[in-house]
Amino acid sequence: MDQLKPSPANSSPLTPLGFLERAATVYGDYPSVVYNTTTYTWSQTHRRCLQLASSLVSNGIKRGHVVSVVAPNIPAIYELHFAVPMAGAILNTINTRLDARTISVLLRHSESKLVFVDCLLRSLVLEAISLFPPNAQPPALVLITDDEVSSESTTVDFPDTYESMVENGDPGFEWVRPESEWDPMVLNYTSGTTSSPKGAVHCHRGIFIATVDSLVGWSVPQQPVYLWTLPMFHSNGWGFSWGMAAVGGTNICLRKFDAALIYGLIRRHGVTHMCGAPVVLNMLTKSPNNESCRLENPVQILTAGSPPPAPVLGRAESLGFIVSHGYGLTESAGIVVSCVWKPHWNRLPAAERARLKARQGVRTVGMSQVDVVDPESGVSVKPDGLSLGEIVLRGGCLMLGYLKDPEGTSKCMRDDGWFYTGDVAVMHPDGYLEIKDRSKDVIISGGENLSSVEVESVLYTNPAVNEAAVVARPDEFWGETPCAFVSLNSGLTQRPSEKEIMEFCRARLPHYMVPKTVVFEDELPKTSTGKIQKFVLREVAKGMGESRAS
Q1: Do strands 299-303 and 321-329 pair parallel, antiparallel, or not at all (unpaired)?
Q2: Which residues does the UniProt record annotate as the domain AMP-dependent synthetase/ligase (predicted)?
Q3: Which of 145, 193, 212, 240 is most buried, with most CB under 10 Å away?
Q4: How far apart are CA 255 and CA 274, in angstroms?
Q5: pLDDT tens per residue across span 306-360
C-alpha cells in the first residue's frame, strides 16, 4: 500500500463555505433568513453572498486581507460570514459593546482593510477611526442601512452602502476557494481584560470541523428554526452561522435581547433551537409573567460560557426549554465539551438532574482528546470529582494561534502537544469533567483552594438572589476570603441582610467557603456576551482593603 498517496481528488481543502452552495441546491425555496418583515430564501442568500464577495474583490480586497464587521444579529452580518471568506479575505466580527478606544486598537492590530458598520453604530466606529495615529491608514467604511430603525442617508464618511455592494456584484462570481485548508478564515478577539489584544486566528479546516461537530453534538436535525439570541460576533455564534446552512435552517435575526420579544418570536416562527450564555437562561426564567411564558412546544437551548447554576437550569426546564450544556472557548471556535445526556438520568429527581446537567461533560466527537491535568507536571488528576486541575485540549478545531503574539501562543499551546485553557476543573469517576473556576478566579484562603463557582451555585439556590458572583478579598489573616456580590430579585417583600446571606451559605458549605463579605448591587457588571465581569468586582473587593475575618 506504500504507493497509495493523497491526490487532488481526495485532498480538496475542507471549508464550510460549500455548505451555502449545497443549501441553495437542496433548500433553495425554503426561508434562510427572517428579520422583521424581510425574508430571504437559501437561493437568494447564496446569490447575495456571491454578489457581495464579487464587490469586495472589485473594491481591492485580496486574499488574506482582514474585513471587519460591527453589527448586531441582522441579515448583513449573517451573509458576511460567507461573503468575506468567499472573497478570499479573513472575517473579523467585532463586539458591538466595546468602546471606541478598544475598537480602534483592534482595527489597527488586525490591519483591517474595510469595516462594515451598522447604521446605529456609525458614530462609535467614526470615533474609533478618529483615534488612529496621523500616519496610520484607516480602513474603508461601508454603511449597513436599516429602514426598520433609521432612514438617514449615507454621508461622506460612508461612500458605499451594504445593499449597493450587493446590487453591484456579479451573481455568477467564482468565489475564491482556499489554496490550503490551513488558510486563515476568521479572526476573533477574546473578551480578555488586558489592554493587549488577543486575536485567535482560525483556518478553513478548523471552522469546518467545529461547525460539523456543533451540529452532531447537539443532534441538530434538518431545517430547524434557529433564533439568534447568541451574538454572531461571539466566536461566530459558536459556528451556527455556517451550521444553519449545512442543515437548511431558518435564521431568525433580532437586533437585541429582550425576553418578551423572544417569547413572541418563538411563538410566531415556531422556533426550535437557540443558544446563549447562562445569563440568557436567567433572564428568560425571570420574566415578570412566567406563567404566560410557558412554551407551547419544547425549544432546544444550548448554553455555554460559564457554569450555569442548577436552580437556573431547573427553572428553564420547567418552562419547556430543553437545556443542553457545553463548554468551549474563542480559541476552540465553538463547543468542544458537552454534557451528553444519558436516558436513565431522566428517572432521577429534578435536583439531581440539574446537578448533572450543570457539569460540562465529555469531549465532542470532533475533539481528539480532552483531559484535566496538573498544570505543572502535566499529569492527569485523579478522577474523583475532587482533585483540581487545568482543562487541556487537543483537536483540529483549535486556533492556529494568536495574531502577532507568538509568546501568548506558546504559553497556551505548549510543546507537550496540549492547548492549556486556564480553566480549573475536576474529573468525575464517570469520565465527565466539571469546571470549578478560571485559574485566576480560584480563591486561596488559609492555604485551601476555594471554588468561587461552587459558592455561587449555593447563592443561586436562595430564592431572593437574582445574580451572584464571588471573588477574593484580601484578608490580613487568611490571605484571601470570599467576597460575594449579589443582586436581588425585584418585588421582594423583605430583603435579606448580609448576615442572613452568610447564614444561608453556612448551612450548605464548609466554613472556609462561606463569604466573609456580602455586597448588594442593583446589577452586576457584565461583558457583552453576558458573563459577569469578575475582574471589575475583584478591583472593588481589593479597594475595600483587608478584611479581618476571625
Answers
A1: parallel
A2: 20-403
A3: 240
A4: 15
A5: 666 777 777 888 889 998 888 898 999 999 999 999 999 989 887 788 788 878 8
pLDDT grade for 487, boundaries at 50, 70 and 90: very high
How are the residues of the chain apportioned to helix, strand and coil, as percentages rounded to the nearest 5?
Answer: 35, 25, 40
Question: Rounded CA gap, 446 and 548, in Å?
Answer: 13
148: number of Cβ within 10 Å: 13
3-state secondary structure of 375: coil
Single pTM value for the model: 0.83
Domains located in the chain, CATH noted: 40-203 (3.40.50.12780), 257-394+423-439 (3.40.50.12780), 442-543 (3.30.300.30)
Q: For 233-276, list the strands marked E by DSSP.
A: 250-252, 273-276
Residue whose entry in the numeric block shows the C-alpha cell 488612529: 132
Place of cell 486561596: 444
Q: Please, which contacts does 178-183 make with residues 24 or more away whose CB atoms are closer than 8 Å?
A: 178/13, 178/15, 178/88, 178/204, 179/13, 179/63, 180/13, 181/13, 181/14, 181/15, 181/205, 181/208, 182/400, 183/13, 183/63, 183/64
Check residue 367 and give left, alpha or beta (phi > 0: left; psi -120 to 50: alpha): beta
3-state secondary structure 310-332: HHHHHHHHHCCEEEEEEEEEHHH
Q: In the predicted model, what is the mean pLDDT of residues 267-296?
A: 80
DSSP 146: B
Cβ atoms < 10 Å from Cβ of 57: 19
Whether residue 484 contacts residue 468, with contact meaning beta carbons closer than 8 Å, is answered with yes
d(CA 465, CA 496) in angstroms, rounded, equals: 9
Question: What's the CA gap between 493 and 495, in Å, rounded?
Answer: 7
Answer yes or no: are the C-beta atoms of 176 and 154 closer than 8 Å: no
